[in-house]
Design brief:
By secondary structure, this protein is mainly α. It has four helices and no strands. The chain is flat, with a radius of gyration of 22 Å. Mean pLDDT is 76; it is low at 116-126.
Length: 126
Amino acid sequence: MGAAKRLGRFAGGGLLGGAIGTAVAILYAPQTGDELRGRIADRLRAAKVAGAEAKAAKEDELIRKFRAGVNDPDALQDEETKARHEVAEAVAAAGLGVNAPGAIAAQETSLRTAEPNTMTAGTPRS
C-alpha cells in the first residue's frame, strides 16, 4: 500500500472520528440546544476579540522595532492609530452588549488603547 493511500485513510479516519466525537459530545452535552449555541457564540466572539487584540499587539511590537531601527519616534504613526482603532471596532463588532460579563471592562480597555486620553460619551470614566 502506498504512502499516499495510507495517509488518505488516516486522514479520513481522523475526520470520521472527529465527526463522531462531535456528535456524541453534542448529544450528551449538559446544556439545552439554545444554551449550547449561546456558549459557542460567546466563545467565538471572545476568540475574535482575542485575535484582534493579538494582531494589534504584534503590530505595535513591529512598529516599536521599526522606530528603534530608524531612530524616529514618530514613524508609522498613522498605522499605529489604525491598528488601535481596528481593535476597538473588533470589540464593538463582536456584539458585546452592556450586560455581557466583562463587556464594559473590555470596551473601556479597547477605547483606552485606541485613544489613550479620551473616552467616548456614555461610557463610565475610571
